[in-house]
Specification:
Elements: E1 7-8, H1 78-83, H2 92-101, E2 102-109, E3 112-119, E4 125-129, E5 134-135, E6 138-139, E7 145-153, E8 160-167, E9 170-177, E10 187-188
Antiparallel strand pairs: 1-10, 2-3, 3-4, 5-6, 7-8, 8-9
């Protein structure tokens, strides 16, 4: 029931049912891993100001590197690579559309906290589990918050990418460090 007609998947990449967290991915990476840090991030040489792909500002590129790419290519999209077909990660604008056109209700599904996201047009809904995130220090607070990647680079700070994040009392969009492991909820046309 969204104006764009986009369809949202019923579960996260790596999940078997809607309330499962699924896998965690650094932005632009297509495999889960144990250590999420700048040292292990695929598209940086060890630091936020040594980016090797998806960089529009030479100050943050390795040796001044820029490629001006601001949306993930299909081969760097965890949804496309893992699910195939026309599945892909949502853009920041598509997360904004979901926020604006749905009713978000904090609830529990099979013992897991998260948001029931229901269309204001036809009441169709999805469940987004509060899956936390992953960093070098381990797992973020599962059950209290959720953090989902978009495919959109933060053009003002290219070491960040746009994401949806939420707590029981708030749903927002913002940018976050690309190396952090976050959930991926696919969309398709």
């Amino acid at each position: 029931g969204l104006p764009s007609g986009i369809k949202w998947a019923s579960c996260n990449v790596g999940a078997e049912k809607p309330e499962d967290s699924g896998n965690y991915y650094a932005w632009g990476e297509v495999l889960p891993k144990e250590d999420y840090s700048w040292a292990t991030y695929k598209y940086a040489n060890g630091n936020y100001n040594k980016l090797t792909k998806y960089c529009n500002n030479a100050s943050y590129g390795d040796n001044g590197f820029t490629d001006n790419k601001t949306t993930l290519a299909p081969k760097d999209d965890a949804a496309r690579v893992n699910w195939g077909g026309s599945w892909r990660m949502p853009t920041d604008a598509e997360w904004a559309e979901l926020i604006a056109n749905c009713t978000w209700t904090w609830t529990t599904q099979n013992g897991i906290n998260g948001y029931r996201v229901a269309s204001k047009t036809n009441s169709n809904s999805i469940f987004l589990p509060a899956a936390g995130d992953r960093t070098v220090t381990g797992l973020g607070s599962v059950g209290n918050n959720g953090s989902y990647w978009s495919s959109s680079l933060d053009e003002g700070s290219p070491f960040y990418a746009w994401r949806l994040y939420f707590y029981s009392s708030d749903v927002s969009r913002g940018s976050g460090s690309r190396f952090i492991g976050r959930s991926v909820r696919p969309v398709c046309p």
